[in-house]
């Protein structure tokens, strides 16, 4: 039978040239193949978690081995003991909340500005010509180098701290958004135009969905940049925060406190990244994954 005949077969009726027994056998074969596939997919879901747990145990073991070998590192029990002290007196909670607030505000503002700017650059050639040179110019300047200017121009309150975090997140996200718009398949846009879609419809129904994976990747990169900038941002006359606590501990060679700060930043950043990864999977379920 031809391809057209197969496509023309209605649901619930055997295709021309086939018997009902063949159709039933085909259905049973499908049932037999889907069950093992579901089992394998659930097994694949558990396997990365086991690998993650094994990786954490191995990392702690290597760290402990280096500390026992005489390197200037605190042992895991010393770090756990210091973490318990900082948690008990509320210091760690206050520092984590202060740092998390700065990162969330700076990252949120940076992303909120980067996405529309990236869309403008990718969709309108005039906007790209006007904005892109400045984006590329500031990308070559590390956000940490902006700190002296930020202090002079904005003072020593929360504003300069949030600004440098905002800049780090913005520069990472705007390029990814711009690239997502530029890489949209022109065939899809032309097909939408042939069907009578206007620019606004094409932008909302074609460009935005196709750019979403790029935007979310840019947000994840921007989140990492925001946390990386945090410690330096908290050099600006901070009185609390994980970065401030680590720098203060450096003056007294308090390595356990420094490790508590490092681990706290890593855990908070990892949790936020997993939230973005979950959003990526929900919003881009149509995308094939390995």
Describe the structure.
- The protein is mainly alpha-helical and 290 residues long.
- The protein has two domains: 17-67; 75-283, MetI-like (MetI-like fold), CATH 1.10.3720.10.
- The chain has eleven helices and no strands.
- Helix 9 (199-233) packs parallel to helix 10.
- The longest helix is centred in the first third of the chain and has 49 residues, at 20-68.
- It starts with a helix and ends in a 7-residue tail after the last helix.
- 27% of the residues are buried.
- Mean pLDDT is 81; it is low at 1-33.
Helix and strand topology:
Blueprint: H1 3-8, H2 20-68, H3 76-88, H4 91-123, H5 125-139, H6 147-154, H7 158-182, H8 186-194, H9 199-233, H10 242-251, H11 255-283
Helix pairs in contact: 3-11, 4-5, 4-7, 4-9, 4-10, 6-7, 7-9, 8-9, 9-10, 9-11, 10-11
């Amino acid at each position: 039978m031809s391809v057209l005949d197969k496509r023309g077969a209605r649901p619930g009726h055997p295709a021309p040239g086939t018997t009902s027994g063949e159709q039933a056998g085909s259905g049973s074969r499908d049932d037999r193949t889907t069950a093992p596939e579901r089992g394998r997919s659930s097994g694949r879901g558990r396997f990365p978690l086991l690998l993650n747990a094994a990786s954490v145990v191995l990392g702690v073991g290597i760290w402990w081995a280096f500390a026992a070998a005489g390197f200037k590192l605190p042992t895991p029990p010393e770090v756990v003991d210091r973490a318990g002290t900082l948690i008990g007196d509320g210091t760690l909670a206050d520092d984590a909340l202060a740092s998390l607030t700065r990162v969330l505000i700076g990252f949120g503002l940076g992303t909120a500005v980067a996405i529309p700017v990236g869309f403008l650059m990718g969709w309108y050639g005039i906007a790209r010509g006007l904005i892109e040179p400045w984006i590329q110019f500031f990308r070559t300047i590390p956000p940490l180098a902006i700190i002296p200017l930020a202090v002079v121009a904005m003072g020593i309150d929360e504003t300069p701290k949030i600004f440098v975090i905002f800049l780090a997140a913005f520069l990472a996200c705007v390029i990814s958004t711009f690239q997502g718009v530029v890489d949209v398949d022109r065939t899809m846009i032309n097909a939408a135009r042939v069907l009578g879609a206007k620019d606004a419809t094409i932008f909302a129904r074609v460009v935005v969905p196709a750019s979403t994976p790029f935007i979310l990747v840019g947000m994840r990169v921007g989140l990492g940049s925001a946390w990386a900038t945090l410690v330096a941002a908290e050099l600006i006359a901070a009185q609390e925060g994980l970065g401030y606590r680590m720098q203060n501990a450096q003056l007294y060679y308090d390595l356990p406190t420094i490790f508590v700060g490092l681990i706290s930043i890593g855990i908070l950043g990892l949790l936020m990244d997993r939230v973005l990864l979950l959003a990526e999977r929900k919003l881009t379920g149509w995308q094939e994954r390995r």
